[in-house]
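Quick illustration for those who missed Monday's session on complexes.
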Amino acid sequence: MGFTAKKVRGMRDVLPPESEKWIYIQKVMGDSASFFGFMSVRTPIAEFTELFCRSAGETSDVVQKEMYTFEDKGGRSLSLRPECTAGTLRAVIENESSLIFPVKLMYFGPCFRYEKPQSGRQREFFQFGLEIFGGSSVMADFEIIRTADYIFKKLGINDIILEINSMGCEDCRKNYRNSILNFFNEKVNKLCKICQERINKNPLRILDCKEKTCQEICSEAPSIVDFICNNCKEQFEELKSYLEITEIKYKVNAHIVRGLDYYTKTVFEFTINTNGYDLTVCGGGRYDGLSKKMGGQDLAATGFAIGIERVISIMEEQRIEFPKLKSRGLYIVCLNKESKICAVKIAEELRESGISVDLNLTEQSIKSQAKFADKMGYRYLLILGENEINKGVCNVKRMSDGIEFEIAIDDNFCDNFINKCECIL
Ligand code: ATP
Ligand code: MG
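Prediction with magnesium ion bound:
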């Protein structure tokens, strides 16, 4: 049996017309973030594995189960990025001297996680995200949330719910950790195997476990809210007040702890209820401690990531219209050597005048070329058959009503064409 090329499980192709939806979403997100003062950052798809172990945490699902890790030819352990925050912060730390803080960055790109592929969960997926470095004020948390809110409104997504929580500072977490440790120690036999191992390393991580039995136990676990110090409480209230001023609806959900180890204080998620369950489309929060953990200076940091595939599926489900594909302008039909030379010249002239032109790329008959142009939705056909070339003209056909006219191929060709086909521009 011969070889048949197939894509990797959990990874997908995006072809037209779906790819146009991607371009649109990326543009709305990029333009919105730019409007809020963010600038683009691009970091490598692969990083040293240790970077993710340090940032996401050894006990996180991402590091324990989901990373694409491999050895390069020099024997170094590299991993495909499971998220973009660690790489972005690494880039900021390495280039600190050339940046002016606070710095506001946006990124768009693929991430990889070895998860069980299912609806809304792929092994390669795309994230759009924002990060603010050096913004220690609660205002930075607010601006991040406000930008996400702006993006979802721009896209026309309905019924999206913002849930917020505070995970407190290191001190609050220490007390909380002890209390949760006692709680889980009493129920250790009922936890899944991985959580049983987590209990002494990082009991907070259990709250993020997706196993049903663990989730049931977690619903009765002590709440972080009861362990937050006055300062953290005040900051949480400040954030809420900004959300109220700007009329961004939110719910406080004490169970949001986020999947990665590095969050402190504000954490949040935007979720949508689809087909009876809550789908998270955006997650983020503050992670002031991470820079130091990665060998950098103390650096306030806050950000979020949006899953693009989930945004598209929700927009499709809510029947939100994507902008129509740009209709195609002109298709030039040509056949023999002479007419092809003429086609190239005409295409060049028209393109210089800003008219979008497609050239026939086949050796098919004029009839087949015309059929193709009709199927593809071109508005005009420009035919350069043998008769036309002999006469020094081209035949232009308007596809909507079949009206045809001749235009002389002379010095005024372009002007004449534009006059007759005004609507094409
Ligand atoms: P979940 O709880 O759904 O596993 P997460 O907490 O692991 O999400 P984050 O690490 O916060 O996700 O990533 C931010 C966003 O990226 C998610 O809200 C989601 O929209 C998207 N995302 C995460 N993992 C995947 C995946 N495997 N496939 C598609 N999108 C994903
Ligand atoms: Mg996950």
